[in-house]
Amino acid sequence: MSAKKKIKHTAETATGKAKEATGKAVGNESLVARGKAQQVKGDLAQAGQKAKDALKH
Q1: What is the pTM of this model?
Q2: Which of 12, 35, 42, 52 has its C-alpha lying 20 to 30 A from 4's C-alpha?
Q3: C-alpha pair distances (Å), 5 with each of 11, 20, 22, 28, 56
Q4: Residue 4: which of 56, 37, 49, 39 has the closest Cα?
Q5: How many helices (H) and strands (E) does the chain have?
Q6: What H or E segment, with its residue span, contains residue 20?
């Protein structure tokens, strides 16, 4: 996985965690859900890139 994509996907996951934590702190369930969804999106993107890299080697 290229370093640029890895950073992008890791940032996506981290942003999702921050949204989830903020949502929990202020009692906003919608923000919690969006944060969890963003984390899943980042994790899936990382897994997809790892799979592509494994096939290349």
Answers
A1: 0.83
A2: 35
A3: 10, 23, 26, 30, 16
A4: 49
A5: 2, 0
A6: helix 3-26
Neighbours of 13 (CB within 10 A): 18
Distance from C-alpha of 33 to C-alpha of 24, rounded to nearest angstrom: 10
Q: Contact, 12 vs 3, CB < 8 A?
A: no
Express each pLDDT in 7-56 by its tens digit: 999 999 999 999 999 999 999 999 999 999 999 999 999 999 888 888 88
Query: What is the model's pLDDT at position 1?
Result: 58
Q: Is 17 exposed, middle or buried (0-12, 13-18, 19+ CB in 10 A)?
A: middle
**Coil, helix or strand at residue 28:** coil
